[in-house]
Design goal:
One of its GO terms (molecular function) is 2-methylcitrate dehydratase activity. It holds the Pfam family MmgE_PrpD_N. Its EC number is 4.2.1.79. The chain has 505 residues and is α+β, with helices and mostly antiparallel strands. It folds into 2 domains: 280 residues, 2-methylcitrate dehydratase PrpD; 140 residues, 2-methylcitrate dehydratase PrpD (60s Ribosomal Protein L30, Chain: A, 2-Layer Sandwich), CATH 3.30.1330.120. It is built from 19 helices and 8 strands. A 4-stranded mixed beta sheet has the order 6-5-7-8. It has a two-stranded antiparallel sheet with strand order 1-4. Helix 6 runs antiparallel to helix 7 and helix 11 runs parallel beside helix 14. The N and C termini lie far apart (47 Å).
Length: 505
C-alpha cells in the first residue's frame, strides 16, 4: 500500500490533477490488476449476505415504498435495464440501485468495516449489480467492480473521519461506488475522476439521520449514495466535469465539512499492480443490529446461560458497559438521546440503543431480526426495568483497541460489570463478535449460506434458493449478459404491489 498525503490547497496553488485524492482513487479503479482467489470468494459471500438480508426485508414499509418508486420508471431504451429485487420487473439502473439498496440496508444486518469512520461496504453491491445487469457485463467484470468498491471505501474509512464532524458515513460510499462502477465499465482515469468528484459532492449530508429519533431514512441514505454514483458516472461518461479539487479545494469538503484548512490525512491506497484486498478486512453480522452491538449480544447470550438470575431485574442493581468512545457516544448512554431508553422508540432507534439490545439479549439468550424489536417486546415491563439499569462508559483502553491497526488486537466489545441486588458483582468481557474472523465462531461460506437459507425461509421458494446459490457460486464464470440471474424472486403473492402507498409518480 502507498500512503497518499491529503491537505487543503489554496486556489492559487493550483494542485495538479495527478496529486488529487479523487484522481488517485480513479487510478486505483482503472488499474487492471487481477482479483485474488480469496477476494473473489469473499465477494461471493457478500452477494449471498446481501441477498439474505434483502429477502428478509422485502415486505417492510421502506422497502415497499422504494420498490414502488422504482417500478414507476421503465427500463431505458438503451441498455437492458436492471432487476428489482424480489420481483420480475426491470427498471433503469439508478432506480434498481435505489430499491435494492434500501432492501439491503433496512434491517442493518449486512457487512461492516470500522476504523476512523463507520461503513457498510456491502452497500456498494446494489449499484454495481444494477449497472452490470443494465450494460450486459460479465460476472468477472462485476467481481472486479465490487472489489474496487470495497477497496476504496475501506481505505477512506481508515484515514478520514466523517462522524467527528457530524457528516454521515455515506460520503465515503458515493466515491467508492463511483470508483467501482469505473472498474466495472472499464472507464479511463479522467472519467472516473469526475464521477468520483460528483458522487462525493452530492452525497455529503449530516448525521442527524442517525441521531435522536432515527427514521426510515437510515435505510435510504446508502441507496441514495448508490443512485447518485450511477448518475455521476453517466454524466462523466457524457463528458461532464466535477468540482475540482473536490477534497482539497479551499472551499471543498475537507476545508468546510471535515477537519478544516489545516487538515492533514494519509490515505492508504494500493500501489500500481497491487491486488485490491480490502474486502478481506471487513466482517458481516450474525445479528440484525448495529455492528458495535454484535459482540455485546454474544456476551449477553453467554451471561444468559451462565447466570439465569440476571434475567430478573429484581436481582440486578445496575449494569455498566465499559467500551470504546464510538460505542459509548453513538449507541450508548453517552449519546444523551432519551429515545435510547424509550419503549415506544422506532425500530431504527432501538437498533442504535445498546442498553436495549443488551437487556433483551440478556433476558432471551438470543437475538431475532423481527421479534427482538417488536413493540410488545420493547414494552415488556420487566425488560423496561432492566433496560433502564444499563449504562455505558468510555474506557480509554477499549477506545485504543477499537482504533488499532493491528487486526489481532482491534476490538469492538468491552467489559461488563453487573452489580446484583445483594452487592455481588459479576464481571465479564468480550473483544470481538463470535462471527468475526477472530471470534469464537468465525463466518465462512457455510455460515453465509445458513444465514441465507434461514432468512429466505417462507420468502422464496426452495427451488429459487437453490438456483440462486448455484448461480452466485459461479460468479467469475458467468458470461456477459447473464447477471439478471442474480436477482431473487419472492414467493407468489408475498409482495402486493397494488398495496403500496401512492406518491408523486
Amino acid at each position: 500500500m502507498e500512503l497518499h498525503p491529503v491537505r487543503v490547497h489554496r486556489s492559487e496553488e493550483n494542485l495538479p490533477r495527478k496529486d488529487q485524492l479523487a484522481y488517485r482513487i480513479a487510478q486505483v479503479a482503472a488499474d487492471p490488476v487481477a482479483v485474488t482467489p480469496e477476494a473473489a470468494d469473499m465477494v461471493i459471500n457478500r452477494i449471498i449476505d446481501n441477498a439474505s438480508v434483502a429477502l428478509a426485508a422485502l415486505t417492510r414499509a421502506p422497502v415497499s415504498a422504494a420498490r414502488a418508486q422504482a417500478a414507476s420508471h421503465s427500463a431505458p431504451a438503451s441498455g437492458r435495464g436492471a432487476s428489482v429485487f424480489g420481483v420480475d420487473s426491470l427498471t433503469s439502473p439508478e432506480w434498481a440501485a435505489w430499491a435494492n439498496g434500501v432492501a439491503v440496508r433496512e434491517l442493518d444486518y449486512h457487512d461492516t468495516f470500522l476504523a476512523a469512520d463507520y461503513s457498510h461496504p456491502g452497500d456498494n453491491i446494489p449499484p454495481l449489480l444494477a449497472a452490470a445487469q443494465h450494460t450486459g457485463a460479465s460476472g468477472e467484470a462485476l467481481l472486479r467492480g465490487i472489489v474496487t468498491g470495497y477497496e476504496i471505501q475501506v481505505d477512506l474509512v481508515k484515514a478520514i473521519s466523517l462522524h467527528r464532524h457530524k457528516i454521515d458515513h455515506v460520503a465515503h460510499l458515493g466515491p467508492s461506488a463511483a470508483a467501482g462502477l469505473g472498474t466495472l465499465l472499464g472507464l479511463d482515469p479522467n472519467t472516473i475522476f469526475h464521477a468520483v468528484g460528483q458522487a462525493l459532492h452530492t452525497t455529503t449530508a449530516t448525521r442527524q439521520s442517525r441521531k435522536g429519533e432515527i427514521s426510515t431514512w437510515k435505510a435510504y441514505a446508502p441507496a441514495f449514495a448508490g443512485k447518485m454514483a450511477i448518475e455521476a458516472v453517466d454524466r462523466a461518461m457524457r463528458g461532464q466535469t466535477s468540482p475540482t479539487p473536490i477534497y482539497e479545494g479551499e472551499d471543498g469538503v475537507i476545508a468546510w465539512l471535515l477537519d478544516g484548512p489545516e487538515a492533514r490525512y494519509e490515505v492508504p491506497l494500493p500501489a500500481p499492480g497491487e491486488p485490491k484486498r480490502a474486502i478481506l478486512d471487513t466482517y458481516t453480522k450474525e445479528h440484525s443490529a448495529e455492528y458495535q452491538a454484535q459482540a455485546w449480544i454474544d456476551l449477553a447470550r453467554r451471561l444468559h446461560a451462565a447466570h439465569p438470575e440476571l434475567r430478573d431485574p429484581a436481582n440486578v442493581r445496575g449494569i455498566v458497559l465499559s467500551t470504546s468512545h464510538h460505542t459509548h457516544y453513538v449507541i450508548g448512554s453517552g449519546a444523551n438521546d432519551p429515545q435510547k431508553y424509550d419503549p415506544s422508540a422506532s425500530r431504527e432507534t432501538l437498533d442504535h440503543s445498546i442498553p436495549y439490545i443488551f437487556a433483551v439479549a440478556l433476558q432471551d439468550g438470543a437475538w431475532h431480526h423481527e421479534r427482538s424489536y417488536a413493540p410488545e417486546r420493547a414494552n415488556r415491563p420487566d425488560t423496561v426495568e432492566l433496560w433502564r439499569k444499563v449504562e455505558t462508559t468510555e474506557d480509554p483502553e477499549w477506545t485504543r483497541r477499537y482504533h488499532s491497526l493491528d487486526i489481532t488486537e482491534k476490538a469492538f466489545g468491552g467489559r461488563v460489570d453487573i452489580t446484583l441486588a445483594d452487592g455481588r458483582v459479576i464481571t465479564d468481557e468480550i473483544a470481538v463478535a463470535d462471527a468475526h474472523p477472530l471470534g469464537a465462531r468465525p463466518f465462512g461460506r457455510d455460515q453465509y449460506v445458513e444465514k441465507f437459507r434461514t432468512l429466505a425461509a417462507g420468502v422464496a421458494e426452495d427451488s429459487e434458493v437453490e438456483r440462486f446459490l448455484d448461480v452466485v457460486g459461479r460468479l467469475p464464470e458467468l458470461p456477459a449478459g447473464s447477471l439478471h440471474s442474480l436477482n431473487l424472486r419472492a414467493r407468489p403473492c408475498l409482495i402486493d404491489t397494488a398495496a403500496a402507498r401512492g406518491g408523486l409518480f
